[in-house]
Amino acid sequence: MRPTAKDLAEAAGLSLATVDRVLNDRPNVSPKAVRKVNETIERIGFIRNPAAVSLARNKSYRFRFVLPTSGDLYLGELIHRVEEARISMKGDLVDLDVVQIAIDDPHKVAKYLADIDENEFDGIAMMAPESPQVRDAIGRLIERGVKFVQFLSGQEKLPTADFVGVDNYAAGATAAKIIGRFVGQRAGKVLIVAETMQSLDSIERRLGFDDVVNSQFSHLQCLPSIETHGDARRATQILQRVLENNQEVAAIYVLSSEARIPLEGAASFTDLQKITVVVHERTPFSERGLHDGNIDAVIAQDPGHAVRSAIRIMRARADLREPHAAQDKIRIEVLLKENL
Amino acid sequence: MRPTAKDLAEAAGLSLATVDRVLNDRPNVSPKAVRKVNETIERIGFIRNPAAVSLARNKSYRFRFVLPTSGDLYLGELIHRVEEARISMKGDLVDLDVVQIAIDDPHKVAKYLADIDENEFDGIAMMAPESPQVRDAIGRLIERGVKFVQFLSGQEKLPTADFVGVDNYAAGATAAKIIGRFVGQRAGKVLIVAETMQSLDSIERRLGFDDVVNSQFSHLQCLPSIETHGDARRATQILQRVLENNQEVAAIYVLSSEARIPLEGAASFTDLQKITVVVHERTPFSERGLHDGNIDAVIAQDPGHAVRSAIRIMRARADLREPHAAQDKIRIEVLLKENL
DNA sequence: CTTGCTTTGAGGTGCGCACCTCAGTTATGA
DNA sequence: TCATAACTGAGGTGCGCACCTCAAAGCAAG
Question: Over chain A (340 residues), what is each successive 10-residue block's mean pLDDT?
């Protein structure tokens, strides 16, 4: 039988009350008692029964995901995954919800964070935009005891908050490697399309991409980033101009999470099947692209995994435990038609 | 406040005892009562508190991983992951252990399974070899109430047992796609090395590989599989002969989980950096190979994920729940130097 | 009607722990 | 030395549920 707190108390020669004080960091315990208890824990291999702890505390966790209002298919996937998690975690005393706010206005985002009632939420996971105001607001939120996870995006990593997502430099580098190896020996230009180059994610991906192209595939020439700003008409026009002026485009790299707009635009002026196309994130569109041969590879981060990971981290923090690092790392996946 | 069983009973106009009978499938309940309870569950959104259930049942799960004795680095990774899981699940009433048995003798494996005491284990996860005897033994084990997971390997899928692992046909196809695209236009031969071609895994991978090469990269010619049987000296000799007779080897595909033996052999006769090399499984050796440029891509299935997935499935089955399919699917990962 | 069966209710116990109170004991320092 | 503070122990309660017993009620067939 595995030892209970009662066994612990007996083995340590102390009372249950004192053991309880040590286990739960209550005041009025002598250092000697603390030592004694901890030694005994080691000695007899005591582990608290988490079910009993959970039951006795009878406390539930309230977490909120804050996502942008704008965004296309990938955002839909994310919301869907949060909803899935919401249902499957309902039993485990975890209450989830999602809100969407205009994330491009740092001022509003900061205000949103400032207005969060720390008694209403134990943790917030947010795709936070890069801005000093937002960073400060996050800091203040954390000081009020709300656990914060930087979710997939934004912000230089705050030392006080956890981050869930991939290393975007590495993601860009991976895209470059795929493009370089897929294109092969022949020289050519690489078209790079982003929704915006304002965000830290885009910048880091571009950096990783350029570094690999320059060092390993110097026969390829990267064109300046094209920004779509989510505007299909405008994007199509720019793409048309660039494609007409550059006949030798060998590859297209879409570094935002939204590939649909630029690729549907480009498809009207050129045959994507003859070009190496690499995009980010698995969506119904990118899956179809892989199937049809219009997309050669997708660099992805599993949204379901990301959501679960954020929840696990917030839970661990709320319990004042360290998150289980290895399991919560998000991998940079490479998807081909064959391993969908 | 979320509803408890007591609330359920009140809302249903029944006693706690009857509700308990329905919830736990006890005998002597009228169909009417069952209906009434289930309706009320829906109506008020009752969910059993899993912590309380776990505490009241006060039952722990005993699972065993059965792995082969032979096998190199990847096996080590697996054992390591099980050990990690063992420690981290200790709290959650899950007792794990690992045993290694000679898995190449179906007779012994079948006997091993027959000798398992169903009172000692709730679930077994096993890298089962392909054999009718073993299949029957698994069937009988399942009939005795022990949950069984086919772990990473072997066996045509049994309909009665769960499977954790990747689709090996797709894994082979993915390897072929990478090799085909990395090699490019130039014709050449592809050297295929396996530890053995007896196992179902190897056969399926080879099938997927050939299908993609033949349909998409017909300028490549696959050589007959070379089998190492884990014997470094012999493998090196064969490789030397084959490499001398085939100057135009453009790529090497190692389809077993153990790449070290064949690649160290091949490295003595040829410069791997000039050849496209694709292997399976992330190990210290394959990581180093990616770094050094001796290996171009690794097709991997995350062993930690696989172990956790097997445990989750055994737990779900032991609780007579359905496993959570999406989360427990193992992905075919493509690892490059850039996304390690 | 009785006999025997099924169904229901009432109630209790315990799982392992958190959290609380109150009385009693031991150190601390003035 | 005594007063005060720091510490310890004993004991109780409740979290939500599983599992058990026993009595009572309902129901059917003979």
Answer: 92 94 91 93 94 93 93 89 93 93 89 93 91 91 93 77 93 98 92 90 94 96 90 87 86 91 84 92 95 96 95 92 84 96
What is the spatial distance, in angstroms and rounded to an integer, between the CA atom of B27 and the C1' atom of D18?
15
Token output for A19: 């053991």
pLDDT band with cut points at 50, 70 and 90 for residue B154: low
Strand D atom within 7 Å of A232 CB:
no
Q: Is B47 on the interface with A (CB under 8 A)?
A: yes
Gyration radius of chain A over CA positions: 25
> How far is the alpha carbon of A125 from chain B, nearest alpha carbon, in Å?
20
Find where tokens 């991976």 sit: A174
pLDDT score, position A5: 94
Contact of B293 with chain A, judged by CB distance below 8 Å, is answered with no
What is the predicted pLDDT for the residue at B44? Answer: 95
Residue A148's H or E segment, with its range, is: strand A147-151
For residue A226, how far is the Cα from the chain centroid? Answer: 24
What is the distance between the alpha carbons of residues A80 and A86, in angstroms, rounded to a whole number? 10
Lowest-pLDDT range of A243-247, B9-13, B315-319 = A243-247
Q: Which pLDDT does position B311 carry in this prediction?
A: 96
Enclosing H/E stretch for B250: strand B249-254
Q: Residue A58 CA to C16 C1' — how many Å?
A: 13
Is A219 an interface residue toward B (CB < 8 Å)?
A: no
Cα Rg, chain B, nearest whole Å: 25
Q: In this structure, which long-range contacts are made by residues A30-39, counting pairs with CB atoms below 8 Å and at least 24 apart in sequence?
A: A36/A12, A37/A8, A37/A12, A39/A12
pLDDT of residue A1: 81
Average pLDDT over residues B320-330: 85
Cα dihedral value A24, A30, A32, A36, nearest 10: -30
A19-48 residues near strand D (Cβ < 7 Å): 20-21, 27-33
How many angstroms from the chain centroid is the CA of residue A211? Answer: 23
The answer, for B245 touching chain A at a CB cutoff of 8 Å, is no
What confidence score (pLDDT) does residue B21 get? 95
Burial zone of B308 (CB within 10 Å; 0-12 exposed, 13-18 middle, 19+ buried): buried
Name the nucleotide with the smallest C1'–CA separation from A53.
Answer: C17
Taking an 8 Å cut-off on Cβ atoms, the answer to whether A324 and B91 are in contact is no
Match 């990118």 to its residue by tokens: A286
Helices (H), A115-167: 132-143
DSSP letter for B133, please. Answer: H
* Helix (DSSP H) and strand (DSSP E) numbers for chain A: 13, 12
Could you tell me which residues come within 8 angstroms of residue A44 by beta carbon, excluding any fewer than 6 positions away?
Answer: A3, A7, A8, A11
Three-class SS state of B185: coil
Distances (CA, A) of B84 to A327, B79, B122: 11, 9, 20
